[in-house]
Amino acid sequence: MIRVAVDAMGGDHAPYAIVKGAEAAWREQIAEPVLVGDENSIRPLLAATSKIEVVHTPSFVEMRESPSSALRKKRDSSVNKAYALQCSGDVEAVVTAGNSGAAMAFAIFTLGRIQGVDRPAIMSFHPNAKGTLSVLLDSGGNVDCKPSHLVQFAIMGHVYAKYGMGIESPKVGLLSNGQEETKGNELTREAHALLRGVDINYVGYIEGTDMYNGSTDVVVSDGFVGNVALKLSEGVAEAITTFLKERIRKSFRRKLGYLLLSDVFEELARTVDYSEYGGAPLVGVNGVSIICHGKSNEKAIKNAIAMAKDFAAKKISAHLTETMQQYRESIDRRTTKES
Amino acid sequence: MIRVAVDAMGGDHAPYAIVKGAEAAWREQIAEPVLVGDENSIRPLLAATSKIEVVHTPSFVEMRESPSSALRKKRDSSVNKAYALQCSGDVEAVVTAGNSGAAMAFAIFTLGRIQGVDRPAIMSFHPNAKGTLSVLLDSGGNVDCKPSHLVQFAIMGHVYAKYGMGIESPKVGLLSNGQEETKGNELTREAHALLRGVDINYVGYIEGTDMYNGSTDVVVSDGFVGNVALKLSEGVAEAITTFLKERIRKSFRRKLGYLLLSDVFEELARTVDYSEYGGAPLVGVNGVSIICHGKSNEKAIKNAIAMAKDFAAKKISAHLTETMQQYRESIDRRTTKES
Question: Nearest C-alpha of chain B: how many angstroms from A238?
Fold first, then answer.
C-alpha cells in the first residue's frame, strides 16, 4: 500500500481532524498514513490498537507565521519532516492542511523543483455544468508572474489532466477578460503568443463564464487572479445557498418543497463542497504534495490522502519531468534553428 | 422630465429591443427617451402615435469593430451622436448596449474626463447575501492599471455609493488574494499603501468570498481582474441554476418540490439576472453614460434608462468633480508640506 505522510499539526482543527481523517483513510484501505507531529498530542487521539505509524517531531509552523521565517527557523517542523520522509523514500506523498505558504516553501526547499519549472503552482478542482471537474492553476502560489510561468502552468495542467484525470487531450485555456485576440492584459497577451507554439491542446483565451460550463479542462492564470477566482466561486455558491436556505425556512409550503427536493440540494451541497476534493496538489515539485484548506475536516483529510495516493500511483511527477524535458528540447531546437 | 439619449443601433437585439425598452420607460414615465439612430429602422417599430423623439443618424458602430477604428471613422455614429446631445445639453444622460469599447472611447472623447480622473471605469452591480447591492469597479474598462488608477476607482466608487445609493460612509475594499497585509500583488500592494492616506472608509484587502457576503459596498480592482470576477460570478450562478434545473425535471416528486418553491427560485433568478440592474455606468466622464450588456433585452434597456435618470437627477458627476478636486488639493497640501 502507498504510504502517505500526513502533517498532523497543520490546520484549524489539528491535530484532531487530521488524525481522524488519517484513521478513516487507513480503515478504508485507501493508503497507509504516517502521522508526523507531536507524539504526545497525536497518540491520545488514536485508538489503543491503532497500527498507524507516528513520526515524532515537536516543532510545527503556526498558521500565521511568514513562510520565510518558517523556512529559517522551522526546519524541524512537522510539515518539513513529512517532506523529508518523502525525500528519503519512506513515503511517496505528503498531505498538509497547515500554513500553505510555508508548505509550499518547504516543498520547494526539500523536495526540489522539477527541471524546467521555475514556479511550482497550486492546482484547484472545480465542478462544472457537464458534471466533470476542471482544474485551475495557479490558485494562489505565485501572485506576480511572467509569461513563461503561465506557459509552464499550462504544460503542468495538461500533464495532470492527462495522466491524473485520464483526459486524452485536455483542453487548456488562458483565463482572460474576453475571447477575442484583442483582449487580455500585458501578461496574458505575451503568454497567449507563447502558448500557440506549445504542443498541447491550447484553446486560447477563455472567460470567467467558461470556467463552469465544462468547455475547458485546464484553466491557466497567475496566482493572484486564480486565487480571486477560486474564492469568488466559493463566495457566489455560498451566497446562493444562504439565499435559498433563508427563504425556505419561511413557510411550511416551502419547507415541504425543500423536503421533496432534498436529494437535489444535498447533491448541490456535495458538488460545491471543497472537502469532497480533499486538497490542491502543488504541481512542479519533485514528488507529491497535497495542500488542504486550513479549515479541513476529517472528510477533507481522508479525500486528500486518497488524492495523494492517486497522484503517487499514477506517477504524475515522472510524467511531468518527461514532458518538461521534451518541451525544453523543443525550445532548444527552435532557438538553434533561429540562430 | 429628464431626457435620456438612447443608442437605438447598439446591441445584439437592436434596434427592436432598444426601441421597446425606450417605449416602456416613456410609458412608465421613468424618463423622456430620445432615440438616436437610423430613422428608417426606428420609426416602423414605434407606435404611430408615439411622441418619442428620434434623432436621425445613419452610421453606427458594429459590435466587432475596434474602438480605435470606430473613433477614427465613426464620429457620426449613433452612440457618438448621443454623447454629443449630452454635451450640448439636449439630454442629461446616455444609454447604449452597443460595442462597449467604442462606447467608452466616444464617451471619453466627446464628454471628456472629470479633472483628476486618468481612467474612467466601468462599474457593475452585484447582489449580496445581505440583500443589498455591492458595486465593482473597474469591471473591464482598463486591463493594465497603475496604483494611482485603483485609488481613483476607489474614490469614484465611494462617490457613487454615497450619492447614488445613499450609503453614508460606504465601505471600500481592494480585491486581493487574502486579507493579510502580506498578501496582494505588486499593483495592489502599492495601491493599498496609497489608499490608507485617502479620506474614505477604506477597509483594506478583501477576498473573493467577501464580494457576495455584503461586508463591502465598493469593490476595487483593475479591469482585467474585475472583468474575470464579473463573468466568473455569472458563470457560477448559471452553472448552479443549470444543475438544479436538470435534476428537477427528472422526477415527478422533484417537479412538485419545485412548484412549492417556485417563488423562491423566481426570486433567485431575478436576483442574479443582469437585466434587473440595467447596465453599468462609465464613471469618471463628464456626464452620465450607462453601458449595457450586448445581449440586453427590453427590460434591461428600460432599467438602464431608469439608472441613467437616477444618476442624472442625483448629480453624481458634479459630486465626483468636487470630491476629486478635494482629493487633489489634499495631495497638493501634503506634497507642499513634505518639500
Answer: 8
